[in-house]
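Q: Convert this sequence to structure tokens.
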Amino acid sequence: MEHLTLLLAIVIVTALVFDFTNGFHDTANAMATTISTGALKPKTAVAMSAVLNLVGAFLSVEVAKTISGGLINEQGIRTEVIFAALVGAILWNLFTWLLGLPSSSSHALFGGLIGATLMSVGTSGVNGGVVVTKVLLPALAAPLVAGLAAMLATRLTYRIGRNTAEKDTAKGYRAGQIASAGLVSLAHGTNDAQKTMGVITLALVTGGVLAPGSNPPMWVIVSAGVAIALGTYLGGWRIIRTMGKGLTDLQPQQGFAAQTSAATVILASSHLGFSLSTTQSCSGAVMGAGLGRKGGVVRWSTATRMFVAWGLTLPAAGLVAAGAEFLTKQGPWGIGVTAALLVTLSGAIWFASRRQPVDHTNVNEADGPAGAAEPSGVVTAAVAAVTPPPVGGPSSEIAATIPAPGPGTSDPTAEPARPATV
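A:
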């Protein structure tokens, strides 16, 4: 029993570490567009997002129930399986963060759980129907629905304000963007923080501390909410750069439309207990908003890398988790080796990130490790025709039809000044 208690403590700590990485990995979902358009200063944006993530963690437990009592069969699952699943999810989160790719923390966790369970007990441990209806189908539908909604909302917004000077509407749209970003942060707390609650609850059930089907205890809700809020406050600047600058250049109108659409999709899914990817929803909304503005450009090379990361997340995290579960099955020494590998690989990824650091001081630069700049080609020529970020209502649309500025005027410091930030 003493060993089991120690193992449970290790699993709970590891789950909170995953929750922490989820926070800084997904900060971009709520705040990337707000930061890139200048509606909020970077540090203010992540602080606001952290607080609202914490609040959102207390609003619902439907998603936690899906994970703790639906995705895999609780009976016959050892606590070591949960530990192995978290190892796979954490390492994939850190790897994609290093590359600046907004992959899904949710799918990393699901892949880890599925891979570790398959290695432990086989296919009988996974509820295939739940995986399809509450994971795979929402994964396909969420970015499409959010993207279409954002595109239509963007077009409607520009049509309504087509006869109004941008300087007269910019402040209002920036205020609306701040409000919608707050809504996304709140929605993120209602969905992603609960995933860690569900994992900890599942670990407590497998350890015999809770009865199957139990709701997360209050201390689990509080600790998961605090962990994701702390991760959010530190800010995943590399992914914020990709979401804010790497996919498309956004005006406040587009940012408002994207965030409102994403928040609606996330809140609706949380209410229904669908454990969708908030990253995919927000990324789809950003691309939809980029396509919704006349003259807007989506950088498809960055989007393609992101799509590949989405497709690899479930199997990659599952394979790592399956390997970790193979080690933990060997006994206490296997658990120790798995923990040592997790710490070592996490440290190596962090040190690699220090070679090209990204933080609040350079997050809005166009170039960086995330690959925000397009390779030479047709897309680059199209992007160069639009001043990033567009600043003048009709003039920004005209810019999309004229050649890129010559060498003598390409200095980014020569672009028009932005409106004052809030």
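Residues 2-373 form one domain.
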